Amino acid sequence: MRTDAAYAQELDAQDPLAHFKDKFVFTDPNLIYLDGNSLGRLPKATKAMLNGLIDEWGDRLIRFWSEDHFNIARDLGDKVAELIGASAGEVIIAESTSVNMYKLFHAALEAQPGRTRIVTDNLNFPSDIYILDEINRKLGNTHQIEVVQSDDGMTGPVEAIKALLDEDTALLTLSATVFKSAYNYDMADINAAAKEAGVLVVWDLSHSVGSVPIDLNGTGADMAIGCTYKYLNSGPGAPAFLYVREDLQNKLSNPIAGWHSRKNQFDFGLNYVPKDGIERFYSGTPEAFSMAPIEIGVNLLLEAGMDRIREKSVAQTEYLISLVDAYLKPYGFTVNSPRDAAYRGSHVAIGHPEGWRINQSMIKDMNIIPDFRAPDNIRLGITPLYTTYAEIHETIMRIQRIMDEKLYEKYTLASSATGVT
C-alpha cells in the first residue's frame, strides 16, 4: 500500500462518504480529532433541533409532553434497533450505560436461581466489573465472579470463556468491541455456546454501535446495553440504550422500579405492577432534551449505511496500520489492535514505552486529540463519517516529528489517570 500524502488525497477524493463531514461542526480546521470513539463530534443539525425544543418547552409548557415527546424513549429505541439488528419493541433509551448494566445484570442473576458463577474477561470496561462486584455484594456474595485473563491483553480468551459455560454459570458479560485494543468478539459463536449451556449473556455495545454492523436478533443475543455519545454523536453524557430479546422481556424483573415502568402509571396507585414488554425496564421520566439528539446521530448513520461505514472503517484502519509499520515501527511503536480486520473495531491502539508522554505531545504540540489507555496504548479513533485519509497520514507525520525532535521528553512521567485524555 502506498504511504505518500498524495495517495491519501486520492483516497479522500474517491470516498463515497466524504460529504458527511460537512454535516458536523468544525471550529478549528487544523485540529485532527481522533477521539470520536470516546465522544463524537457535534452534528450541525443538533444545534437547531435543541433550540427548537427549548422554544417548544417555552410555548407549550406541560403540553410539551402530551403533544409529541412522552414516548421519546420508546420511539428512539426503535430507531436504535435498526442499527443493532433488533426488532421494534426490543430497545429503549434509558439513563446511563452503568444504570442499564445494573438493571440487566441484576435481572439476569435473579432469573437464574441455583447458578452461582458469573463470567467476564479482563478486557471488559472496568465499570462493568465494578457493577458485578457491587450486585454480588448486595446479594450476599452468593456468586463467584470469574474474570478470564487474555493471554496477550489484546484478543479475547474465547476458548477459556467457553470452558466456563456450564450448568453453574448464570451470566456471561463481555464488550462486543474491547475498549483498549478494539478486538471484536464473534457474537454468534459466543451466543451459541452460552445458549447450549443455558447461560444468559449481556453484551456491552458501547464501542461497537455505529462503528461495526451488529445483528442482535440474527446472532441470538439475549440482552445488551450501549452508549450513544461515541459513534452515534449524541453529545456528552447522552442517555444510553438497553436491549432485551422479546421473548425474555416478561420473564425478567427491573430492579429499579419507577412510575414510568408501572402499568396504568397515571392512576398513581401505590401497588407496583410492571408494564409488559420492554417498557418494564423504564424507571423515571425520560430525559427528553438529552435523548433528542440521538435521533440526529442515528439518522446520519442510517443514511450512510452501516455496511458502507464498516467498509470505510476497515479501509482506514488498514491504511493507518500500514503507515505505523512504514514510519513508526523504527521508533519502537507496536500495533496493539488485531491486524485481522474481522476482529478489529474502528480504533487502532498503538503502543510505545513512552506512550503517555507522546500522547501529551500530540495534544499540546501537534494539535491532535487521541486518547491514552494504560499501560502504553495511544488510541487513534477512526470515525468514518468525518475522519479523512489525509488526517490519518498527517497524524503519522506529526508523531514522527515528535520522535525525531524528542518533543515528548519535556512532559512528566506522572500517572496517566489524571483526566479524560
* CATH 2nd-level architecture of the largest domain: 3-Layer(aba) Sandwich
Number of helices: 13
- Which radius of gyration do the C-alpha atoms yield? 22 Å
- CATH fold-type name of the largest domain: Aspartate Aminotransferase, domain 2
Percent helix: 25-40%
Give the H and E element order: HEHHHEHEHEHEHEEEHHHEEHEEEH
Described by strand count, sense and barrel closure, the largest sheet is: 7 strands, mixed
Annotated CATH homologous superfamily of the largest domain: Type I PLP-dependent aspartate aminotransferase-like (Major domain)
Shape: globular
SS elements, strand count: 13
Mean pLDDT: 96
The class by helix and strand makeup works out as: alpha/beta
Structure write-up:
- This protein has 421 residues and is α/β, with parallel strands linked by helices.
- It has 2 domains: 145 residues, Aspartate Aminotransferase, domain 1; 233 residues, Type I PLP-dependent aspartate aminotransferase-like (Major domain) (Aspartate Aminotransferase, domain 2, 3-Layer(aba) Sandwich), CATH 3.40.640.
- Helices cover 37% and strands 12% of the residues.
- The strands form 3 sheets. It has a 7-stranded mixed sheet with strand order 2-8-7-6-5-3-4, with helices on both faces. A 4-stranded antiparallel sheet has the order 9-10-13-12. A two-stranded parallel sheet has the order 1-11.
- The longest helix has 23 residues.
- It is globular, with a radius of gyration of 22 Å.
